[in-house]
Amino acid sequence: MKNSITDRIDRLRDLMKKERIDVYYIPSDDFHGSEFVSDYFKEREYISGFTGSAGTVIVSMDEAVLYTDGRYFLQAEKELEGSGIKLYRDGNKNVPKVNQYLCEILDDGMTLAFDGRCMTTNKVFQMKSYFLRNNKNIIINGSVDLPGIMWEDRPELPDEKGFVLKEEYAGESLKSKILKIREFMYSKSADIFILTSLDDIAWTLNIRGGDVKCSPLVLSYLIVSMDDICFYCGSGKKEDRKLAGIYDYLVDNGICVKGYFDIYEDLKGFEKEVILADLSKVNYKIYSMIERLQINDVYNPTTILKAVKNDTEIKNMRDAHIKDAVAYIKFLYWFKNRSLNQKITELDLCENMLENRSSMDGFISESFEPIVAYGKHGAIVHYSPDENTNAEIENKSFVLIDTGAHYIEGTTDITRTISCGELTEEEKRNYTLVLKGNLALGNAVFMEGATGASLDMLARKPLWDNYMDYNHGTGHGVGYLLNVHEGPNAIRYKVSSVINTPAFKEGMITSNEPGLYLTDKYGIRTENMILCVNKAENEFGKFLGFETLTLVPFETEAIVLNMLNEEERELINSYHERIYTTLHKYFDGNELKFLESITKRI
Amino acid sequence: MKNSITDRIDRLRDLMKKERIDVYYIPSDDFHGSEFVSDYFKEREYISGFTGSAGTVIVSMDEAVLYTDGRYFLQAEKELEGSGIKLYRDGNKNVPKVNQYLCEILDDGMTLAFDGRCMTTNKVFQMKSYFLRNNKNIIINGSVDLPGIMWEDRPELPDEKGFVLKEEYAGESLKSKILKIREFMYSKSADIFILTSLDDIAWTLNIRGGDVKCSPLVLSYLIVSMDDICFYCGSGKKEDRKLAGIYDYLVDNGICVKGYFDIYEDLKGFEKEVILADLSKVNYKIYSMIERLQINDVYNPTTILKAVKNDTEIKNMRDAHIKDAVAYIKFLYWFKNRSLNQKITELDLCENMLENRSSMDGFISESFEPIVAYGKHGAIVHYSPDENTNAEIENKSFVLIDTGAHYIEGTTDITRTISCGELTEEEKRNYTLVLKGNLALGNAVFMEGATGASLDMLARKPLWDNYMDYNHGTGHGVGYLLNVHEGPNAIRYKVSSVINTPAFKEGMITSNEPGLYLTDKYGIRTENMILCVNKAENEFGKFLGFETLTLVPFETEAIVLNMLNEEERELINSYHERIYTTLHKYFDGNELKFLESITKRI
After folding, report:
1. What is the spatial distance between Cα B90 and Cα B70, in angstroms, rounded to a whole number?
2. pLDDT tens digits for A171-195?
3. Treating both helix axes as pointing N-terminal to C-terminal, what angle do A311-336 and A346-358 enclose, rounded to 10 degrees?
4. Which among A162, A477, A582, B145 has most CB atoms closer than 10 A?
């Protein structure tokens, strides 16, 4: 690898010289700002050898650097060895921010280049305004893809089969959704709406696919005008493997299907139109082709529409969670009844979990890379086991298991922290504190208008009162067979923007996942998915609350009873009773006895 | 009054015709966007007869309307009788918003006029952009003061004596503050900083006065450049009653003193300067004189600086609260030992409270109009008694008392809900719920970075859990001998902007005032002032909390003990113990016994 990387950097510099580029910038994004990207888009990995999910490579004539965050410092050190690429630990003191670094290495009149398709417009705006504030006169070239020229054995663009999500699952027709979009366009006096985020497109058209790992999406763009709808995908031909299952459906709905790359040609055709586009999502290449037009920069209306699940989606989501719970409890039965002589590892747990889930009807895929973290691995928030790290489960401490799945009925995301045998008093105490936070949030009552910033307090209070905390948000929105992380709803105490701190609405589905991480010791997290529901309306106004969708018991072996008040104890008992009542018919024999035992009153 | 108002509207229309004005708009603000305005500025009251604190009059050739909010509907109905002015109940369904109404009555090419000194720049921007979005081409004239021309017996501009707030009270010199402002200007590449909000000016210069009711401020403007500082106030002459006590001090500090109205002339002199100005504060007339220049619109740096109290201010604030508590407990002693045969009213309570406070050394004024609301009056959130409403205190239910004072050592704001005799079980239960919220917030522990949106949950949870709520914020920032309501710190669950939802910082002082209001029955509110303090720093980060500054016991007669958990009970007992320990030396005889009795353990 060493030699190939230094070679690649050298060849990149040759191309830069030819194109008169002083600094070349390689981010990790695909053309759509997706959370997970397919191999075709991994230019940053190709050029640097660094395989982490987040990072930016910046190459000048004098040096090549990789920026990445705390999750990946160790991995990057290792992977960059011998490559000549310097590691910049983003967030560390004395490490300049990316834009500051660019300012330092770029003199007035120099050229910075990148593939504008891999950068959101707002990201480039931030870069430009940083240069402006620092009186730097930099030429920005966002329309070259130099690694793309060099990359000989580049993987193909993903080409998985698309399929139609029938109305019994989607709950609302494509036509009805398009109508809502056009109403929004009309209210903003817009002629054209450009939609590039894959979850928004899949939601709008009621199609799904498999182009993005762990997200059943279809690589595509969508342009909606008042008269036409254009869908850019694959070759644009009916015979296309990706299109075969959705082509007729789309055409029957009046949608014109074109090739994935044709959008850039079509954008040239607009002349006087007013464009609606979310510049925090739309890539910079698209923006640079429409900047001559009037652009109305708005938060995608589809993002807000799809965050509020309709009745069909809610009913299905409940069903998906029953399936997921059945699979989960079978997994738990297997794990809790393992022979203590048998060597069992984190990867074994991953495998058994997947086996149980994939045996359920309607299973599509995992909804994210599973986190199965034993003991001290649990304290590494983004840990996923691989052949090198795979730990053996001992007869003590916790294993933290954060996994999820897509079923045709919807998406799950659940974390349980499971006792592997003997627990210390401290482990139990901390488990109980985290559980108290989860219970308080899951059973919250709040006025309409309250946001995740207020709700977050409920989950953290038991920890904060004890001068402890977890360094991540308490909850993220969850898509319906789309992305497992979906905005705008979120539960976190830091308020960075109003749009990311929206008021909760009935029908929003969010995770509830307080945790606690003690470095080199263990990690605890308890995560349920919660549906926002109406609780009451009276002279004071409308009160909302949550219904917990997840149906897997808490780890009662880890609960310190005298740390719970009566109400908390009753909340656990009634939750466990609901689980038993809902699930017992799916089990018999020893498994049923097991279900009984893990849901019995405490 | 009737005739004089219709006369005034007629005369206003004559002037409008002469000036070719189609619609004239009269807001309630002074030239500085102050919360309280002095009589000189009450043009809206002069023209309409409506005396409420909030309202806008709009006069066209066809009609005259008054917009006001729910607090004033009844009062406005009464006061507008016979005036011919139509009442528009702002916030009610079917009542167009002000800008929408303007759009309806103004045709393309028509002229809307107002006194731009009484409108913040942002308010006019909002108006303009509303017209733009609705394709209305309106001519805006912001430089006429028609009521000012008509108003013959207009009150004089306030002319109260200014005084220097010595460093033993201010804790930081004028020079040091100016240095910080200039550093900020430098960071924003600005040449000139225009400061128009009176609390920011008083804080910057360490001066106080009496020009604004309940706020010891000095009517003035301030312009800071890198070399000069110009203070616009009164006649600008040393002999001026307002300036006599501060003129030499200012001049000695290198400040040029000019007349209050001279600023408008001086603004004409700027040519190429970059101007720093908070357009949410600066009035539109000032803006229209500098719009030809480059304006850097920022949140006033002084607002953020003064929100974090320095050590001297904190020490003094503690002292002010001791004084206030001594006065308050004397008041309570008088009230609780009143003869039950004696007729006693809300206004009697106001009077006795003021008497006790004003007998304390260093008393300056009340910090806002006192709210003393017996029984059902307590449910009217902004109720203040007057001769017409003054209720007699009976031997039952609650009296809600929200009052405060300015002392040379700082500012207080306290609400207690006091039992007047017998209480119902419901009254006690609700009192206890509100108290539980106050205790939870006052004793919160939270990570640095948390905002008032998160903290608000603690105060509301006991009520929300019982499907009850109060329709106001839980806490507002409090100025140091400035305004009793001071941003940006606040505690409220609605997130409307990031700047109004800042993270808490050590040294911020905020109110903690949950309540409950049952229409036609009673109101409950318990308000303390709380100082943000460091609680701990460890591997998780920095934890903050609060120190309660207010030192007046809760109403133990209204507490339902079995609704409190052990911790809450202990919080009340330790608070009452701290009160006794701090205050007992100021009392003797029966008053000391009284203090003992109201602070004894529960």
Report:
1. 7
2. 999 999 999 999 999 988 899 999 9
3. 130
4. A162
Contacts of B129 (CB under 8 A, 6+ apart): none
Both ends of chain B: CA-CA distance in Å?
A: 56
* B118-141 pLDDT per residue, tens: 999 999 999 998 888 788 899 999
Per residue in A118-155, pLDDT (tens digit) is 999 999 999 998 888 788 899 999 999 999 999 999 99
Which residues touch A106 (CB under 8 Å, ≥6 apart)? A22, A23, A112, A131, A136, A138
Q: How do strand B192-195 and strand B274-277 relate by DSSP bridges?
A: parallel
CA distance A454 to chain B (A): 4
Angle between helices B425-442 and B566-583 (to 10 degrees): 80
Question: pLDDT-based confidence at A3, cuts 50/70/90?
Answer: low
**Per-residue pLDDT tens digits for A68-117:** 998 889 899 999 999 999 999 998 888 999 999 999 999 999 999 999 99
Is the model's pLDDT at A1 over the cut of 60? no
Q: Which residues are within 8 A (CB) of A129 and not within 5 positions of it... i.e. 6 or more apart?
A: none
| Contact call for B453 and A494, based on CB within 8 A | no
Closest alpha carbon to A200 in A413, A37, A33: A33
Distance between A453 CA and the closest CA of chain B, angstroms: 5
The burial of B429, by beta-carbon neighbours within 10 Å (0-12 exposed, 13-18 middle, 19 or more buried), is given as middle
Q: Which residues of chain B neighbour A539 with C-beta distances below 8 Å?
A: 519
Q: Residue with structure tokens 């263990």? A: A522
Per residue in A192-218, pLDDT (tens digit) is 999 999 999 999 999 999 999 899 999
ipTM of this complex: 0.93
Q: How far off is chain B from A290, nearest CA to CA, in Å? A: 22
The pLDDT value recorded for residue A342 is 87
How many other CB atoms are there within 10 angstroms of residue B379's CB atom?
A: 19
Query: pTM for the complete prediction?
Result: 0.94
Residue from B489, B493, B534, B562 whose CB has the most chain A CBs within 10 Å, to mutate: B493
Q: What torsion do the CA atoms of B190, B195, B199, B201 make, to the nearest 10 degrees?
A: 90
| Cβ separation A540–B468 shorter than 8 A | yes
Mean predicted confidence (pLDDT) in B486-501: 94
- Does position B3 have pLDDT exceeding 80, yes or no? no
Q: Mutating which of B133, B134, B298, B447 best tests the A interface, going by the most A Cβ atoms within 10 A?
A: B447
End-to-end Cα distance, chain A: 56
| C-alpha dihedral sign at A46, A50, A53, A58 | negative
Report whether A409 contacts A505 (CB < 8 A): no
Q: Give the span between the Cα atoms of A276 and A300, in whole angstroms.
A: 9
Residues composing chain A? 602
Interface test with A, best of B294, B458, B540 (most A CBs within 10 A): B540
Report pLDDT digits (tens) over A345-377: 999 999 999 999 999 999 999 999 999 999 999
pLDDT digits (tens, 9 = 90+) for B408-454: 999 999 999 999 999 999 999 999 999 999 999 999 999 999 999 99
Going from the C-alpha of B278 to that of each of A205, A370, A496, B115, the distances in angstroms are 46, 50, 21, 19
Cross-strand bridge partners of residue B477? B510
How far apart CA A255 and CA A273 sit, in angstroms, is 20
Q: Is the peptide bond before A488 cis (omega within 30 degrees of 0)?
A: yes
Closest of A528, A436, A543 to residue A491, by C-alpha: A528
A548 - beta bridge partners? A530
Report how far residue B64's alpha carbon sits from residue A559's, in angstroms, rounded to the nearest whole number: 68
Q: Identify all chain A residues contacting B538, using CB atoms and an 8 Å cutoff.
A: 467
Under 8 Å between Cβ of B490 and B477: yes
Measured between CA atoms, how close is B79 to chain A, in angstroms? 29
